[in-house]
Amino acid sequence: MALYALGISTSPREGGNTDLLLREALAGAREAGARAEYLSLRGLAIAPCSECNACARTGLCRIEDDYQAVMARMLEADRLIFATPIFFMAVSAQAKLLIDRCQCLWSRKYVLKQPLLAEPRDRRGMVIAVGGSKSRKMFQCVRLTMKYWFDAIGCVYAASLFINGVDGRGEVVKHGAALAAARRLGRALASADLPPPKEPETVELPGGEPAAG
Ligand SMILES: Cc1cc2nc3c(=O)[nH]c(=O)nc-3n(C[C@H](O)[C@H](O)[C@H](O)COP(=O)(O)O)c2cc1C
């Protein structure tokens, strides 16, 4: 059966740089034979984690909102591509809401020591982040967050694509190297015959001028 690759866009800007890079990565996953789906958090109601700690007893989040359906799709996925714009040196607020709600999965794994899935599967994740400035420091926070988040949700952190210097809506279409890298990494992520990497493959590209800092 084909692998299921789920791409999650956490940018508020429809058709923006995050979306375009994500769609390219999903096209790459399709080339590798995966069933690839795009999901945007725009318009979804995902409340912040309330830190009620109920999940430490049950492994479930008791807030009933759109997170529940998103989590089900995330757990179904064999490959997850998580895409975010850089907002103040970190992931978008929409991204962080989803990340924090996954505390219930962290609890299941580390507090209750329960498996996340009925049957263990080879699950892998990739992050795409894009920022408008030329600083490369802005990806430090994303890297660390993804390391711990992918672990909590039971995915091997397989790849990162970091693009700086791209600010205007959809401006990334002018940067063929960024789009090509997204497609290649998406294809590699969904190639079932490649072993999971020990360390995430990281591609950092300046969309505009050479990166500084
Ligand atoms: C609230 C906000 C905060 C931002 N913070 C940063 C930042 O810290 N560093 C940066 O390089 N770009 C920053 N940007 C620019 C965006 O990362 C950039 O425009 C990106 O291309 C947006 O992606 P999108 O088109 O998918 O929304 C910020 C933009 C907004 C709206």
CATH class: Alpha Beta
Gyration radius over CA: 16 Å
Helix percentage range: 25-40%
Question: What is the helix tally?
Answer: 7
**Gap between N and C termini, in Å?**
45 Å
Q: Tell me which ligands are bound.
A: flavin mononucleotide
CATH architecture, please? 3-Layer(aba) Sandwich
Relevant CATH superfamily: Flavodoxin domain
Low confidence ranges: none
The 3D shape can be described as globular
Instruction: Give the strand order, joined by hyphens, for the main sheet.
Output: 2-1-3-4-5-6
Number of strands: 6
Return the CATH topology: Rossmann fold
Tell me the fraction of residues in β-strands, as a range: 15-25%
Largest sheet: 6 strands, parallel
SSE class: alpha/beta
As for the number of domains, it is: 1
**Mean pLDDT figure:** 96
Question: Secondary-structure blueprint of this entry?
Answer:
Layout: E1 4-9, H1 17-31, E2 35-40, H2 55-58, H3 67-76, E3 79-85, H4 93-101, H5 103-111, E4 124-130, H6 139-152, E5 156-164, H7 176-189, E6 201-206
Parallel strand pairs: 1-2, 1-3, 3-4, 4-5, 5-6
The structure holds flavin mononucleotide.
The site of flavin mononucleotide has 19 residues, from α1.
Structure notes:
This protein is α/β, with parallel strands linked by helices. The protein has a single domain, classed as Flavodoxin domain (Rossmann fold), CATH 3.40.50.360. Helix content is 35%, strand content 19%. The chain has a 6-stranded parallel β-sheet with strand order 2-1-3-4-5-6, sandwiched between helices. Strand 5, helix 7 and strand 6 form a beta-alpha-beta unit. The model has no long low-confidence stretch (mean pLDDT 96). The site of flavin mononucleotide (FMN) has 19 residues, from helix 1.
